[in-house]
Amino acid sequence: MTCLNHASLAASLAALTVTADAAAASKPKSPAGKRPAVIVIMTDQQTAGAMSCAGNPWVRTPAMDALAADGVRFTRAYCPYPLSGPCRAALVTGRMPFEVRAFDNAIRPADADMQAGIGHRLAEAGYECLYAGKWHVPEVNLPDSGTGFRRISKMNDPALADACDAALKEYDGQKPLFLVASLLNPHEICEYGRHETLQYGELAPFSTEECPNLPANFMPSTYAAEALTLEHASSPRYHDTYTYTQDDWRRYLYAYYRLVERADREVGRIVGVLKAHGFYDDAAIVFLSDHGDGAAAHGWNQKWNLQEEVINVPLIVKPPKGAGLRGVRNDEALSNVGLDLYATVCDYAGVTPDPERYRGRSLRPVAEGRQATLHDEVFVETLLPGPGMRGWSVVGPRYKYVLYQWGRNREALYDLQDDPGEMVNLAVDRRYEAELNRLRRAMYDWGVRIGDPKLVRNLRPFAEIRNCKPI
């Protein structure tokens, strides 16, 4: 873990946010300060590397950088499913999308799972639960009932900060606060790629000379999965880049980073509102994205697949002032944000989830410097909508294993330490057979644990695990 100096970026944030004044000190806080306010700020379709604090020279994110300067940035955070609806179902319920049967954007988790959702949990624990912005579980906007939250704004990025401001002016402080502010951007890259009208206005004209160069892993990896070729060919509306030139890809990247900056401006405004009302310092704030974007790596846009740019997401935890680390980058703690956000929010609120039902682990001990690691491995699942094919991945400290249901090269093994761009598939190399078998077994055991018969069946043919007890 290494400390970062964000003083200059924090100064830039000040120009974006509402200035806190002396009146903020008199604003109501949680009773006697016993339980902190818990704030979740979320973007949509932001890959982990799309922040300037992550060393990306093509994007400027002073608001996100300032949060990182006040807390811990987790570089090994993964979404449970690279699609908004299933991922957000996991964020709300604290369970894997398969467990709540959320396989696409249109499926609602069962009532029992929703009744145990994070909004209900914190409301039962005495919190005032407010929600602003995109919901997508599966409705785009938060329903009027059934979630435990009170909606203070529909999905409308430019309106979220004002909605939070209005809600906090009315907040009487009798209950501790749980607030979620959920942004759409940089999801507008989907509309940009399809040459559709953008939700919040078109980008200013730009020239190709201003655009980023292509990433080093722009080309496909060795022994790339046939599943990805089938997905590209069968879903032209979503993967509308099949006629792209290299310059088109550069323009795609430029647009993507401008949309990240749109989101960052709104994050800055929301943080400014928190400061103006005296909530920022004493709150536990979690910043994350639901999933990433292909960002031109391996010639991929959109989501769905299991490459790093799609499943590795931003995650920052800013603990209450004086109760945790500041300006730290953690490269060790593997996190499944879908499961761990639930556990983290419950931890700060003093709620203990049933360990038999919930597999997430709280990020709080890492944010407070009491431990450095979290999970031995994290698991990701997906469904490629074109061929109708499921896929799974397990990510360990160094190696990553990927499995698709069928097709050539349906298995992949990557060394994320020496090959972070996933260019060389080591599953065909006998020297890595022991690591391949270890991760196969870890994935098999996960399939048994969550009751996923299709995952177990797809792994059973491998000789090394034929004798494992079937479910």
Relevant terms:
alpha/beta; 471 residues; four-stranded antiparallel sheet; globular
Written account of the structure:
By secondary structure, the protein is α/β, with parallel strands linked by helices. Helices cover 31% and strands 15% of the residues. The chain contains 14 helices and 15 strands. The chain has helices at 7-16, 62-69, 84-93, 111-115, 118-124, 157-170, 189-193, 226-234, 246-276, 308-311, 337-349, 364-367, 433-450, 453-459, and strands at 2-3, 38-43, 72-74, 77-78, 128-133, 150-153, 177-182, 284-289, 315-318, 328-330, 335-336, 378-384, 389-395, 399-404, 411-415. The chain has a 9-stranded mixed sheet with strand order 1-10-3-9-8-2-7-5-6, sandwiched between helices. Strands 12-13-14-15 form a 4-stranded antiparallel sheet. Helix 3 (84-93) packs parallel to helix 11 (337-349). The longest helix is centred in the middle third of the chain and has 31 residues, at 246-276. It is globular. The protein starts with a strand and ends in a 12-residue tail after the last helix. Residues 1-32 have low confidence and may be disordered.
